[in-house]
Amino acid sequence: MSTFNIAALDEAIFSGTPLKSNFLCGPSYGNAERSFARNPRLSSEEACTLA
Known about the structure:
Radius of gyration: 19 Å
Strand content: under 5%
């Protein structure tokens, strides 16, 4: 997510450390009725052949 209060997050989680946040990832579960099916993926052999 890119629209969060970075300063508040850094104060709450990284206070007293040299660490700072860059982005926030919020994993969730999708609605199966509204989600698209996963597109086909290359096999390892196909991907290595193309590379």
